[in-house]
């Protein structure tokens, strides 16, 4: 799969594909974003890789992020396997999953693939 990052007017599916591409190309990390600036090629957490896919830059206002970014975040959060933290609460935040529960890059790649399926289903007008 060849994806040029970032994509202009992306869909949630394209952003998630870009997220997967970034992690497969540059690696995955826990405990920090990794990606900070356009052009970075360092390992990144799942949210850092999503930032790379959208072309995030330091100080970028939320209102400059496309709707597809928020849809991709929703898809990632909904793709988390059924896991409970030490207090018995269901883990629903992808950053918490990335940093505390994912055991490998393969776990993260599988999560992104489930999120892509979710985005295809939930955001069909954008995924076409």
Write a compact overview of the structure shown:
InterPro entries: DUF6197. With 128 residues, this protein is mainly alpha-helical.
Structure, explained:
The protein has one domain (12-127). The protein has 6 helices and no strands. The protein has helices at residues 12-26, 46-54, 67-78, 94-101, 105-122, 124-127. It starts with 11 loop residues before the first helix and ends with a helix. The mean pLDDT is 90.
Furnish the topology, listing elements before pairings.
Layout: H1 12-26, H2 46-54, H3 67-78, H4 94-101, H5 105-122, H6 124-127
Count every helix, treating DSSP H or I runs of 4 or more residues as helices: 6
Task: Flag low-confidence runs.
Answer: none
Amount of helix: 40-55%
- Radius of gyration over all CA atoms, rounded: 14 Å
Main beta sheet, described? none
- SS-based class: mainly alpha
Q: Average pLDDT, to the nearest integer?
A: 90
Cα shape: globular
Order of helices and strands: HHHHHH
**In angstroms, what separates the terminal alpha carbons?**
18 Å
Number of strands: 0
Strand content: under 5%
Count of separate structural domains: 1
Keywords:
single chain, globular, DUF6197, 128 residues, 6 helices, mainly alpha
